[in-house]
Specification:
This protein has strands at about 1-5, 10-15, 20-25, 30-40, 45-50, 60, 65-70, 75-80, 90-100, 105-110, 115-120. The chain is mostly beta strands. Strands 2, 4, 5, 6, 9, 10 and 11 form a 7-stranded mixed beta sheet that branches. Strands 1-3-8-7 form a 4-stranded antiparallel beta sheet, with no helix packed on it. It is elongated and about 50 Å long.
């Protein structure tokens, strides 16, 4: 069993910052890609940022220069530093991790989401 737990969401004024964290626990051999997605009310879930193991991060155009994704492989954790937040960043943010278990079988895991609300 693998579990992802997100934290760090909340209410912030436009121009402010938040840092999201997502830690994985359970039967983990290795974690390949890690990423953050978001879903605003009435919209489809969209990619925010992803970072492969040992690779460079990729960002949605809407967050480039404002958000930074990072990972700590020793802690099975991915972070999303969000600066210069805008009301349009308001959404539920979901963590995704591509985890390979001891058996060698890998799959995508998702957190339950953390709400980020940016007031104008």
């Amino acid at each position: 069993q693998v579990k992802l737990v997100e934290s760090g969401g909340g209410l912030v004024q436009a121009g402010g910052s938040l840092r999201l964290s997502c830690v994985a626990s359970g039967s983990i051999f290795i974690i390949n890609g890690m990423g953050w997605y978001r879903q605003a009310p009435g919209k489809q879930r969209e990619l925010v940022a992803v970072v492969p193991r040992g690779g460079s991060a990729n960002y949605a155009d809407s967050v480039k220069g404002r958000f930074t994704i990072s990972r700590d492989n020793a802690k099975n954790t991915v972070y999303l530093q969000m600066n210069s937040l805008k009301p349009e960043d308001t959404a539920v943010y979901y963590c995704n991790q591509q985890i390979v278990g001891p058996s060698g079988y890998g799959m995508d895991y998702w957190g339950l989401g953390t709400l980020v609300t940016v007031s104008s």
